[in-house]
TrEMBL record:
Pfam families: DDE_3. It comes from the Bacteria. Residues 15-135 form the Tc1-like transposase DDE domain. This is Transposase. One of its GO terms (molecular function) is nucleic acid binding. InterPro entries: RNaseH_sf, Tc1-like_DDE_dom.
C-alpha cells in the first residue's frame, strides 16, 4: 500500500494498493495524486527509500512542472546521475512539486506512517480474509470510513526530554 496524508485535513489521500511497491508503482501513485489538482503545489514528505529518489520520479516532476532542461543520464551525468543528485532535484523548493526527505530511523515524523499504525491497530490486527482482493476492499472501506468520521490533523504532544541530573 502507498498512500498520502493530508496534514491540514487529517485525511488519507489517493491510496494505491497492489502486489508491489516498485519505483514504477510509486511514480504512478504520485502521478495519480498530482492529477487530483494538476495546478496545485504538492509537498510530499517521504523517507529515504530508493523509490522516492528514482529516475522516473525526476522525469515526472520535470514534466509536471514544465522543466525542460537536460536531466542527464542515470549513473552517468546530470540530475539523473545519482540518488543524491536526484534527491536534490526532487527537493528543490522552487518546484511546484517537491519532496522532503526525513532522516533515517525517524518514521514518526512521517504522518502517513502514524496513520498506517492506526490501520494496523483498528483493522488489520483483527481481520480474517480469504483473498488479496478482499483485504484490499476492506482497507479501502476503512479509509473511506476513517476520512468521513475521524479525519482531523494529528496533534503533536511531545514536549522534549526532561533533564537528567
Amino acid at each position: 500500500m502507498i498512500a498520502n496524508w493530508d496534514v491540514a485535513r487529517g485525511k488519507v489521500v489517493s491510496p494505491s494498493i497492489g502486489p508491489t511497491r516498485t519505483e514504477q508503482d510509486f511514480s504512478e501513485h504520485i502521478q495519480r495524486t498530482i492529477k487530483i489538482d494538476e495546478k496545485a503545489e504538492w509537498i510530499f514528505i517521504v523517507d529515504q527509500l530508493n523509490t522516492h529518489k528514482s529516475e522516473s520520479l525526476v522525469k515526472l516532476v520535470a514534466e509536471s512542472c514544465g522543466i525542460t532542461i537536460d536531466l542527464g543520464r542515470k549513473g552517468k551525468e546530470g540530475i539523473l546521475q545519482s540518488m543524491d543528485s536526484r534527491a536534490d532535484f526532487l527537493s528543490d523548493e522552487s518546484h511546484r512539486i517537491r519532496f522532503v526527505y526525513i532522516p533515517k530511523h525517524t518514521s514518526w515524523l512521517n504522518q502517513i506512517e502514524c496513520w498506517f499504525s492506526i490501520l494496523v491497530r483498528r483493522l488489520l490486527k483483527r481481520i480474517t480474509v480469504r483473498s488479496t482482493e478482499e483485504i484490499s476492499q476492506k482497507i479501502l472501506n476503512f479509509i473511506d470510513y476513517f476520512n468521513q468520521h475521524f479525519a482531523k490533523p494529528f496533534v503533536w504532544k511531545f514536549k522534549g526530554f526532561k533533564d537528567h541530573k
